[in-house]
Structure formats: structure tokens, C-alpha cells
Amino acid sequence: MKALRGVLLAAGLFAAAVSSGKQPDPPGQVRPGEKPVNAAYLFAHMTDDDYGRLYYSVSLDGLHWTRLNGGKRITDDYRGHPDIAQGPDGTYYIAGNQSDAAPDITIWSSRDLIQWERYSTYTPDLKSTPGYSQALQRIGAPKLFFDKASRQFVMTWHTPHLEGTPEDSERYWASQRTLYVTSRDLKTFSAPPERLLDWDMGTIDVFLRQEEGKYWAILKDETYPTLDWVTGKTIRIASSDSLLGPYKDLSLPISPNFREAPMLVPSPDGKAWYLYYEQYPGVSYGLSVASKLSGPWYQVSGYTFHDDWDKYALPPKVRHGTMITISRGQYDALVQKFGLDKPGRP
């Protein structure tokens, strides 16, 4: 009995130590004194109470983010779901639109990520898309990608072909298809728009990346989840040997259901990928991590409001946007211009 009490006491002490101990940090961070491959990050986003306008948050580790500019907009001109790409001469471009029903996509440019100027406007002829003449006049979340290999931009967005009904509002979302055009200078564009993905499923929030010797399409599966379609409303990834596809090997869900607006950045040491996604509408953000884009992926603990368990943190009420890597000099310039908010500020 005495021996048993000793075993139980030791087990209890071990359990207490485990429960009170600090949990492991996500991979990809650098040790003190080591120089990061990726020194800083910018999160260009909207907010829950000012949807469609431009705000900034920044980070030095890709995990902990702080708002800039005292909770004010970066510019009053921009409207849309922020997405930023850098061109071959170092100029940054951001795409947006006044609303999904607006016919135009507007592009702004900036040399320093501080001052944005209107650069061009593109009006796609949606119904001229081959095999998609039933397209509705809707342009959702335009996104930009510059392909270094072909020295051209690809602009993607989603367009549906069915209106919702009181009995079936989800058929509108399930009918979303991802379209694209290409451009050398973001002033003239290929015509007509083309479908990027040939799958018979809803897709939104699609963006492209070229990494690890392949092209990758990161997307939201926009079919409503059921027992017949358990992957609905999750973030998934497909790959291709060519910029414009065909994209294949569509992954299983990387996120739980009812997540959207994915964002992808490399870790500070360049050895891991951080994939963020929003639990909508404006509830929180999740984070999944992998060493390769092909996976496997796992979720990092956050939004528990326990320091030992929260391994990443974003300002409250941030919504859709994009994350990009920036230099430490760019980070310092943004902080000097706009100022860091106090942690936890709404």
C-alpha cells in the first residue's frame, strides 16, 4: 500500500508538472542571436466594424501581430478584400472593388506600402468566359500573383452562376467558380477571363504561389458541408506543374469547417509554413503549420486566452486580408509612420 501511494503521488506530481508547464512553441522560429530568413511581416486587412476598408497589423515572428495607426484606416480610398503582390521592379500592387456587384476591379500601387495611388481599372466581360456564359455580374475578392518564371501577373476572383433562393440560399455560394486573367503590367489584361479550376465544386478566396518546384492553389471549398460533402467550407490546397493548371491532387481539409480567407507566409527561419484562416463571421483566426505545402498540416493552439496555450495572437475583430513578408527596414518605417497600437486594443 505504501508503494502504491508513492506511485500515485509521483503520478500526481508528474501530471501537475505537465499541466502547469509551458507548451511547445510552433516550429519555424529563430533562436536568440540568430538572423531570421524572414525578418518581419505585414498583415493588410479589414475589420469587423469597417468591412472592406484597409488596415495594417505587423509582426516580427509571424505569430504575434500588433495593429498600426491607432485603429484608423491606412487610406480612405481603398475598398475591397486586401491582397498585395510585389512586381518585378519592387512596386507593390493591391487589388480591390467597391462591392461584389460592381463591374470594375481597381488596382492601387505603392513603392513603400505607406502611400497608395490608384494605378488602373479593369472591367472583365464575365459572360465571355468560355463555358461560363451563365456567369452573374459578381466579382468576389480579386487577388494578385506575380509569376517570376513567366514575368506576368495573374489576377483571380470568384464569380457565381446561380442566384440564391429563400429555400436554398447556399446554391449561390456553391455556384462560385474561380476566374482569372493575366497581365504584364496590370494595365492591359488577357481576354476573355478563363476558369482556373475545372472542378464541379464551389471555390472562393483562391490565391496562387510558386514554391517547392510547383505551383499551388490555396482555396476555400465553398460547398456547404453535409455527410455527402464533409470537406465543405474548409481550406484546401491543390498543385500543378504549370502556372495556369491543370491543378490536381486536391488535399483533404487543412482547417475545420466554416473557415475562409486563407493567408500563407513562411516562418522566420524559412523552414515552415504558417497558414492562417478566418473563422467567420469575425469570430477568430486559426493557424495551421507544415514543413511542406503538401503537408502534413497540424493546427496550432490559439484564442484560448491562456498564455501557456496561445501560441499566436491577432488583434481583435480583424477580418479578411493578406499577409506578406517585409524587411526589418520596412517594418521600422511602417511603425515610424503609423505607430504601434497597445496590445489588446480593439
UniProtKB/TrEMBL annotation:
The keyword DNA damage does not apply. This is Glycoside hydrolase family 43 protein. InterPro entries: GH43_arabinanases, Glyco_hydro_beta-prop_sf. Gene3D superfamilies: Glycosyl hydrolase domain, family 43 (2.115.10.20). GO terms for molecular function: hydrolase activity. It comes from Stenotrophomonas tumulicola. The keyword Hydrolase applies. Keywords: Hydrolase.
